[in-house]
Amino acid sequence: MADRARSTQSPARYGLTDDRAEQDLVAAGWWQDGGPTPGSDVVLAALARTPDADLALLALDRLRVATDDWDDLSAELRDNPVFRARLLAILGSSSALGDFLAANPREWHRIVGELTEPADYAGLLLEAVTVDGERMSSGDATPSLRAAYRGLLLEIAAEDLAQAVDRDLPVVGYEHISSHLTELAEAALGAALAVAQAEHPGEARLAVIAMGKCGGRELNYVSDVDVLFVADGDTAVATRVASTMMRVATDACFEVDAALRPEGKSGALVRSLDGYAAYYKRWAHTWEFQALLKARPVVGDKELGEQYATMVRPLVWTAADRDRFVADVQEMRRRVEKHVPAELVERELKLGRGGLRDVEFAVQLLQLVHGRSDEQLRLGPTMAALAALGDGGYVGRADAAELGESYRFLRALEHRLQLQRLRRTHLFPADDQTAELRWLARAAGIRPEKGKSEAQKLLAEFRRHANRTRRLHQKLFYRPLLQAVARVPSEALRLTTKEAGARLAALGFAAPDGALQHIGALTSGVSRRASIQTALLPVLLDLLAGTPDPDGGLLAYRQMSEALSSTPWYLRVLRDEGAVVERLATLLGTSKLVPDLMVRAPEVLRLLGHPAELAGRDPEEVAGSLRSTVKRHGYLGNAIAAARSLRRHELLRVACADILGLMDVREVCRALSSVWGAVLQSSLEAVDRAEAVAADGWKARISVIAMGRLGGAELGYGSDADVMFVCEPVEGVSDADAMRYASRVAQSVRKQLGAPSQDPPLQVDVDLRPEGRQGPLVRSLGSYVDYYARWGEVWEAQALLRACPIAGDQDLGARFIEAIDPVRYPVGGLDLAATREVRRIKARVEGERLPRGADPNTHTKLGRGGLADVEWTLQLLQLQHAHEVPALRTRSTMDGLAAAAEAGLLDESDRAELISAWTLATRVRNAVTLVRGKQTDQVPTSGRELAAVASVLGYPADGDVGEFLDAYRRTTRRARAVVERVFYGG
């Protein structure tokens, strides 16, 4: 039975499809009578796990023919699982190493036991070019060095590839293999140099400087080895030595490239230390300093090599001070990518989109910019530098981890592709190259999974890593903060306390000692947070220097940073989004309101990087979202807290957009009014629900009528909400019960919203109701109608001009407006007595309401040509003519002035003067509130507050604030002249 089962087997069971497979297995002694010979099944099972079983078996057959100890080799394959995995993985992955073993059949012994330590590479290669204590000639040394080098390369590949065949063996990372390959390359350079020096004796010292991947200790299996030569003594001898060394190493091992030397291939191959110094200081391009980042002496005269490194390091770590440094490096990456043919750009592992260069350029640029002040970043290997950038906070932990994972994956694929034929290649197979994809997947240790073949899984992984690499490259390499950091001179990044104080004073900080204390508090310690602050602060200080109040801005930044220290994304956003830092500096150095709100609504900070989201939200959408959110809270306290929180968020969002010039004054006023209306609506609903529960049901319908600036959608940042409450009983409830119920609701709304808070006040002002403070808080619709008909005064009709329903029962609100229209738009307009009364009240307001000590020329509300002047002028025209000019029946000041001009009630020039003054006074009033952090109507007349107000209005922070004051006085003076003529009849 067992014999019959065995006889049905074929080599195809082990992944062997070549017609010669069974013949080769029989010749090897592993196949007989239609199945494996005893003990050979482990060899065949391992053969099936190789990337290409047919390739591996073909190479084994060639080795069998070439070697004189096949029986020993075959026994090792059966009995030694580590050797079995090493040899079969090599033969199934690399036709070039298979050829090497066929030509050098004794070399298989290298991978039987312990592999050669890298520390021994140099001695072994020197031994290979030495006979009887003498160095060989270059002609004789080349083949001997080639064989020795290839043998050691075989050992490295054996350790690298074995896990693909035997998963019980440890995974060897790309960094480990690259380090060994670099050690081997250095040893080969040393041996070639020894041959060259023996062939060209003379008085010359020569140091070989490794560049690029060799300098970074991250070579591939097949890499150019970039070098520079530094000489001291006889330059002619040194040049001959260098040329011979390059020829020997190139012919025997790998291409040695000296094209990164000054002036490239047209420049001298060898230069003195002074020659290099002169060139770098006078003529070097930006890319040359980027190339020098990995430069390190490897072989030759150690003292001379170290002198070169000592001379170069300061030049490398101040290169970012050069004009356009960041832009030049970014342009270089774009040029490199453009050289890749369009049809290959998605498959090029090295130079294409999402390739290795994306990672390397991003890491190097970050190193060169931030490494000026942080010596921990001055590392050669890409992965070590990326880890240091992550540890130091210059790159997010998740970004560093993801980028590192993708880089290792792409480098591993690059290694496998190069091992196949030991050729320099970086091209990922095309989607339709199924056999090549399967081979590469198996060589990389990728196994099939349910529903996906090895090739499909490899394709998916390659695209995932390439897309992620490209995304993170774009995020890090083109980070706006890099430009800002690079603009800060290196000496400003590394100052003594005394020097730092002097620099802060030069930047415009009035209290450098205090600023130093803030900086020390933010950067002290060795935490990741302190590292990120250390990178951010030089940029922030420069940005704050361009604001009206650098000292106040830095204090606000410290307070904000301390308050948000537990917010995980806070510093990450500042680091990763340069636009956020720039805009935040403007806000903090200008406004006291913004930092206070930002601490309690930090989510708005994220919006600073997205101007469209910061300024582009529709007020109706915002209001609807606020009402919906509050409605989800059943408990009254939670509902009111939610309303306050959302109002705080919107207030801060609008304030930021306003200061940054992203919203005009009408948009600001409309947004603030809409938020206030939504807060009133949601609060009324919450209180009404709670009161209905306590009263066993609803007793009254309630409508809130907006008055004043709220009614006109012209609120400022600190404006109260002028309202009136109107109610009517629900069916079956008496008027008295309904009134008591509605009064409790109205009082509770005022109390809940007016409770003490760190936010700008939420005062609900009901002083415009009939009888003012002496009258009832809530009236029925009939009571309002009766009052206005019997006792209403002209100022009350004037107040009703901007009345509109804003919360509560919409039908009741609409009926209220219908009822008051005859009051505010009286048929026949105002008679002479009523007109005189309006003018008398206005004159009294001017004389009695202006605060003591206030300057009437610069008081935005009650001053000459201010808001009250313009609004009373329009309102008088509305009271006089709205009954016959429907367009005047508007709550908007600007729309009303336009309607008055169109109706011929105002000259066009007068309309323009009034609109100009009203717009300016509104903007200034808002700006003063933003700057001072509290509602105020008086324009500052000197100092940093005045400069800050001027900057909010678009005047340069370092300009003459007198221009702003002159413009304000001139505009309001012209408006006052119109008011004297139109309102007072002068």
UniProtKB/TrEMBL annotation:
Adenylyl transferase as annotated region, ranges: 489-986
Family annotation (SUPFAM superfamilies): Nucleotidyltransferase (SSF81301), Nucleotidyltransferase substrate binding subunit/domain (SSF81593)
Single biological process term from Gene Ontology: regulation of glutamine family amino acid metabolic process
Gene Ontology cellular component list: cytosol
Catalytic activities: [glutamine synthetase]-L-tyrosine + ATP = [glutamine synthetase]-O(4)-(5'-adenylyl)-L-tyrosine + diphosphate; [glutamine synthetase]-O(4)-(5'-adenylyl)-L-tyrosine + phosphate = [glutamine synthetase]-L-tyrosine + ADP
EC annotation from Swiss-Prot or TrEMBL: 2.7.7.89, 2.7.7.42
GO molecular function: [glutamate-ammonia-ligase] adenylyltransferase activity; [glutamine synthetase]-adenylyl-L-tyrosine phosphorylase activity; ATP binding; ligase activity; magnesium ion binding
Domain PII-uridylyltransferase/Glutamine-synthetase adenylyltransferase: residue ranges: 327-477, 855-983
Entries under CDD domains matching the protein: NT_GlnE_GlnD_like
Classification via InterPro entries: GlnE, GlnE_rpt_dom, NT_sf, PII_UdlTrfase/GS_AdlTrfase
Ranges for domain Glutamate-ammonia ligase adenylyltransferase repeated: 86-308, 582-817
UniProt keyword annotations, A-Z: ATP-binding, Ligase, Magnesium, Multifunctional enzyme, Nucleotide-binding, Nucleotidyltransferase, Transferase
Sequence segments annotated as region (Adenylyl removase): 1-481
Function per UniProt: Involved in the regulation of glutamine synthetase GlnA, a key enzyme in the process to assimilate ammonia. When cellular nitrogen levels are high, the C-terminal adenylyl transferase (AT) inactivates GlnA by covalent transfer of an adenylyl group from ATP to specific tyrosine residue of GlnA, thus reducing its activity. Conversely, when nitrogen levels are low, the N-terminal adenylyl removase (AR) activates GlnA by removing the adenylyl group by phosphorolysis, increasing its activity.
Family named by the database record: Belongs to the GlnE family.
Official protein name in the record: Bifunctional glutamine synthetase adenylyltransferase/adenylyl-removing enzyme
Gene name linked to the record: glnE
